[in-house]
Amino acid sequence: xxxxxxxxxxxxxxxxxxxxxxxxxxxxxxxxxxxxxxxxxxxxxxxxxxxxxxxxxxxxxxxxxxxxxxxxxxxxxxxxxxxxxxxxxxxxxxxxxxxxxxxxxxxxxxxxxxxxxxxxxxxxxxxxxxxxxxxxxxxxxxxxxxxxxxxxxxxxxxxxxxxxxxxxxxxxxxxxxxxxxxxxxxxxxxxxxxxxxxxxxxxxxxxxxxxxxxxxx
Length: 217
Hints:
Organism: Metallosphaera cuprina (strain Ar-4)
Keywords: Chaperone
Shape: globular
Number of helices: 10
Protein name: Cytoplasmic chaperone TorD family protein
CATH class: Mainly Alpha
């Protein structure tokens, strides 16, 4: 059975949306259970298709389902809120770059993220008890999901999606591929990482797929 570009966009949208959710702090039991339900739904509905990109949703689902919520909270907070280590593990682009490359680079990158958001008339808003920063990894992945949804709507209505595709490429190169792979390696190699060792391994596979996919567009 042939796969259409709309099918591919549907898988890409769902995968970015899932990873965005995985890096939000699910403090309440309700939020944590909602994440489990989302993982189960995506695994059952799209897991087979997502696996063709190199991402194993079932492995992520399994490691989270087999973990106590308390273990999840301890691991997330120690890795990503305390964020200590040789390199900062806080999953916020400007904070990581500030420590590694200085204020000038961090400020430039942060302002560029805001510029992208404003181009879509987005204003960061408080959506949970622990709202992420505009350049938090969850926010960045969510924005890519939004750009893909925009492309889907344009193509579905027969309109030109060239600019949206270019925005996807530029945003991914500037704000995903530039720092997340290095950060992923730090998380995977951190002895405190168990759940997020698996999550980050699959995110690494996803970014490799996306780099190749966007490079061919």
